[in-house]
Every structure is written in C-alpha cells, then in structure tokens.
Amino acid sequence: MNDYQILKNIEKHITLNDLEIDHFLSVLKLKDLDKKERILSQGQTCKKLYFVEFGSLRAYNMNEEGKESTIMFAVQDWWITDMDAFVHQKPAVLSIETLEASRVMELDFQKLEELYIKIPKFERFFRILFQNAYIREQVRALENISFTTEQRYLRFIKKYPQMLPKITQKQIASYLGVTPEFLSSIKKK
Amino acid sequence: MNDYQILKNIEKHITLNDLEIDHFLSVLKLKDLDKKERILSQGQTCKKLYFVEFGSLRAYNMNEEGKESTIMFAVQDWWITDMDAFVHQKPAVLSIETLEASRVMELDFQKLEELYIKIPKFERFFRILFQNAYIREQVRALENISFTTEQRYLRFIKKYPQMLPKITQKQIASYLGVTPEFLSSIKKK
User: Fold this and answer.
1) What is the DSSP letter of B45?
2) Best residue in A119, A146, A147, A176 to probe B by mutation, most B CBs within 10 Å?
3) Confidence band (pLDDT; 50, 70, 90) for B1?
4) Taking CB atoms and an 8 Å limit, are B63 and A146 in contact across chains?
5) Is the CB of B144 less than 8 angstroms away from the CB of A142?
6) What ipTM score was computed for the predicted complex, to two decimals?
7) Residue A100: is its pLDDT beyond 80?
8) For B44-64, how does the pLDDT look when each residue is reduced to its tens digit (9 = 90+)?
C-alpha cells in the first residue's frame, strides 16, 4: 500500500514515521487521468499542487494573440502547478494537461498549510524542494539569456530524454520560445 | 543595535525571541563594501549567502567568448548569491559585485545548515523565501519566452525603479539578453 512514488520523493529529504506517513497519505488525493486531460485552466483559481506518480504533463500559457508558451514539463517524480497562482490563491496564468494517461497525487492548498503546522518537517522538505526549483529556474534564466537556441535545444534533450517520444516539435519549440520552423532548421544542422 | 534591515526581513515570515535574535546575529558577519567591490568571482567556491542592508549589487556570468549576462540585481532588503554554487558548494558560474558603496550581511553555508537544526523556524523562513524566488523566476521564464524585448524592458523598469540611476544601459541590455544597440533602438520608440 505504501509503495507510492510520492513517499520515495519525500524521503529524499526527510524521514517520516508510520503515523506521519498515514497522515500525509490521508491529505492526498490520487487521480487517474486520461491523455490530454486538463487539470488546470488559465484564469481559474489554482487550488492544488500535483505530484506525478507516473505519466507526463505540460504547463503552458496562451497569450492574447493565441500564442502558446510551454513553461514546464513534468514527468514521474516531479511536482507541478502554477506556483504563483497556488501560493497566492489567485487566477492561474498557466494551463496544465497530461501528455499521456497519467496518475497524479493532489495536495490541496489549505491542507498543505495545515501540514506545515502539524508536521513541521514538511517545512524542511519544501524548503529543499523550492530551493532546487529556484536553482533550476536561475540556471534556465542564464541559459535563456546567454545560450543560442541550438545550445538550449541540446540542453533540453539532455534534461528531458524521457519526454522526447511523447511531445510534439511544436511543444518543444514553444518551450524554447521559437517557431517550429526555426527549431526544424536547427535540427537539420 | 537591533535595527538591522535583515531582522525586519526575517520577521516578515517568522517571529524570533530575543535569544534567537542574538544567536542569529552572532552567525552573521557585517561587511561594508566599496563601489565596484567584488564579493564572488566566477570559478570560486561560493561559501556565502548575502543580504543587502543598503546599496546594490549585480550578479553576472561571462561566457567563453567574453559576453556578459546579468542574471540578477539586488537592492536593499534582497538576498543574493549564486544559489546553485552555494547550496552544492561547487564553483560559481556567477560573479557578484557592488554597483555603489553597500553594506551586506554574510551568512556562511555551514552556519546556515546549523541554523536550520538549532532554530527550525528558519526552515519556514527559507521555505517561503525560496518559494517566492522560484515564483519570480518562473514568471521571468514565461516573460522571456512570450514577451517582446520592449515588453520585458518595461517590466524591468517597473520591477527595479530604484536601480535605474545606478546601472548602465549595457548592464540592462545584458540582463535582457540583447545588445546595447538593440536596447537603445527600443528606447527611442
């Protein structure tokens, strides 16, 4: 029963006793999702943080001109949400949908706030999680400024090798912030 | 004695008693810096996290071709370091220097690790700090992909109004990832 991926993820940084594991599992909600199922829509209040038990998801924004920008992909063992909208309980600027049949664990905003109080070790867990997420985004910001699109494409396939069979060239292009035609010209090199 | 900016920053998220304040201040090191003083050099191990009591600093990377990319600015009440290098105690990819005479508080890596154990409230403080930093970088990543340089310049002057008198056009251009000439052509519009 306790062989959930999310417990292995948590135990990378903190150790829970049996009671704490029971409590933690009791605040989670397991959800099985179909391919192309949307779990967050731009404009909606973002009430949940998601952990990927298996499968893969994509978070993206659509601007006023209808241009899509992919902000992140999430595969097994990753956390995903519109963090700004989740933390501040305001309308999402991102939509999130599955790229294949997937299973996620949902953690509700209010329940997470209670979890910090009830089991303060989770402060440590999420401190390390956010610290790593911040580092990842800081590295990405530097790459976005200083790397060519070709270098960024090579970093992408190194970072997400398991994603490649599941995503379209258009989605990769929208993650790199270029047109599919430009990406295709780079790949030919 | 206790009117340090850093204590006001901490108290945004947690409350410390007098003993905890004394301990926290005892692990910090106050440093007065001249203009253009460098506190971290690319390639060096990054041992400190810095908090800006007053003044302003810039973190930047120089690539193999000698091109500079500014990754962040920090003004009063901000924290700054090469977080990847600090957390993993590995060589920095960023250099950090002052833009004017400044005062910083230094927090040593080992002392911060001990602080988490001794006063676990700091787990909460840094959880919230990293959470906000992650959100800021996620928003920036989306803007980098989906905004024009003109929109990003307007966001920049709105985000860092107090920086404008202190930084050169070249530094702003290197933050936006464009040439100074391109930035100048945008400003003329």
Assistant:
1) B
2) A146
3) low
4) yes
5) no
6) 0.91
7) yes
8) 999 999 999 999 999 999 988
Q: Which of A11, A89, A79 is nearest to A45 (CA)?
A: A89
Residue B93's closest CA among B65, B62, B124?
A: B62
Spell out the alpha helix ranges (H) of A28-120: 83-88, 109-118
Mind spelling out the 3-state secondary structure of B103-129?
EEEEEEHHHHHHHHHHCCHHHHHHHHH
> Could you give the domains of chain B?
5-121 (2.60.120.10)
Q: Do A83 and B134 touch (CB under 8 A)?
A: yes
pTM of the model: 0.92
| Burial of B113: CB neighbours in 10 Å, binned 0-12, 13-18, 19+ | exposed
Min Cα distance A170 → chain B (Å) is: 14
Per residue in A71-99, pLDDT (tens digit) is 999 999 999 999 999 999 999 999 999 99
Question: Is A69's CB within 8 Å of B93's CB?
Answer: no
Q: Give ∠ CA B69-B180-A64 in degrees, rounded to 5.
A: 80
Show residues of chain B in contact with A146, CB under 8 Å.
61, 63, 67, 69, 177
B143 residue type, one letter:
E
Q: If you search the block for the tokens 């867990």, which residue do you land on?
A: A125
Which tokens go with A51? 């952990």
